[in-house]
Automatic annotation (TrEMBL):
Coiled coil residues, start to end: none
Protein's UniProt name: Katanin p80 WD40 repeat-containing subunit B1
Major localization listed first in the record, in broad terms: nucleus
Location of this chain's protein in the cell: Nucleus
InterPro entries: WD40/YVTN_repeat-like_dom_sf (IPR015943), WD40_repeat_dom_sf (IPR036322), WD40_rpt (IPR001680)
Keyword Nucleus carried by entry: yes
Domain of life: Eukaryota
Keywords, sorted A to Z: Nucleus, Repeat, WD repeat
WD repeats: 196-227
């Protein structure tokens, strides 16, 4: 008898693929509606309504995908949007460097704010609204907009910011930095917190998972989970490409989208893969996702898919993963297995 020790990577890779396929097959998540519209940007403006914009603004009902209203816009294309309360929608026009506020329920323009010193980067989550009055915009410079007086001030001390997210306090926000770190900033324009660890490259997106936890993704394809004190809780290897979007789901789950053509669900506590919600036919960095409770919207190639996520099914997926993934270590790497052969 002799013992031959070697790595059976191909076999374990197939095992992992079967595990993922099985988890995906038992998920009860389903498409509730499909919205087909040419879109440069979009924003969820209410629990059951989404605004999609290109040259004009289209308001769709999320639950059934029906078109509710078209707001004719005589200006240039819209690059970014964010909801302001339940009825107003803020749109940014890069060519004219201005914001216009629309009442999407009535289809009317209510205000125009022009600023030649602050723009918006359409590639990142770039506008945050506070108390329906103040807005932070992220472009070449960070701007603080007073939507009541239509004035803007430049936050000159806040530089090298790549993406934004709401903070844990009413007057704070989280900043992803170009050096891979994350910082906390105030509406007064000062940094007052910084992570001790950082991504290997610029931070691409941030999302709040709960009242005391948030996640960030970088160009290194890792997702980091942090607590409210900026302590690193979990480092998760998610996709093989850049993670372009993060979005929380009810409970401790969150979704990721990537250029590897997959939308996946993860457990933020354990860092484990739960299931793949969708896999696109072609690879793209332009996948966008957003969640409202257990409803997930994903947009790709001018089509938005609305998914009803079953949280109980996600828990079952995770339980099955744990039962079947004994051949895979905690970091998702393939183990070396010693195989004994008899001669």
């Amino acid at each position: 008898m002799s013992e031959v020790s070697y790595s059976v990577h191909d076999h374990l890779r197939q095992t992992r693929q079967l595990i993922h396929a099985h988890a995906q097959s038992i998920s009860k998540s389903r498409i509730s509606s499909i919205i087909r519209s040419k879109a440069l940007c979009w924003a969820i403006v209410h629990d059951d309504f989404v605004a999609v914009a290109s040259e004009d603004i289209y308001i769709y009902k999320i639950s059934d995908g029906s078109l509710i209203r078209v707001i004719k816009v005589t200006y240039n294309s819209i690059h970014s949007m964010v909801a302001l309360g339940d009825s107003l929608l803020i749109c940014f026009y890069a060519s004219t460097n201005c914001f216009r506020i629309f009442d999407w329920r009535l289809g009317e323009l209510t205000a125009t704010i022009i600023c030649n010193v602050c723009g918006v980067d359409p590639l990142h989550k770039n506008m945050l609204v506070y108390n329906n009055r103040y807005m932070i915009s992220n472009g070449q410079k960070l701007g603080l907009w007073d939507l009541k007086t239509c004035r803007v001030s430049v936050l000159t001390k806040l530089r090298h910011v790549t993406c934004l997210e709401y903070g844990f306090e009413d007057d704070s926000f989280l900043c992803g930095m170009s050096n891979g770190s994350l910082r906390v900033a105030s509406l007064q324009g000062f940094f007052y917190g910084c992570t001790t660890e950082s991504h290997a490259g610029a931070v691409s997106c941030i999302t709040l998972i709960s009242k005391n936890k948030f996640a960030s993704a970088g160009r290194d394809s890792f997702v980091y989970v942090w607590d409210s004190q900026l302590n690193l809780c979990r480092k998760i290897k998610t996709h093989y490409n850049l993670v372009t979007c993060l979005s929380p789901i009810s409970g401790d789950y969150f979704c990721t989208a990537s250029g590897d053509s997959k939308i996946c669900v993860w457990d933020s506590i354990s860092g484990e893969f739960v299931c793949a919600i969708h896999e696109y036919s072609a690879k793209s960095l332009e996948v966008a996702i957003a969640c409202k409770g257990t409803r997930l919207l994903s947009m790709y190639e001018n089509t938005a898919y609305v998914w009803d996520l079953d949280v109980d099914s996600l828990r079952m997926c995770l339980h099955k993963q744990r039962l079947l993934s004994h051949a895979i270590d905690g970091d998702g790497a393939y183990k070396d297995i010693s195989i004994t052969t008899v001669h």
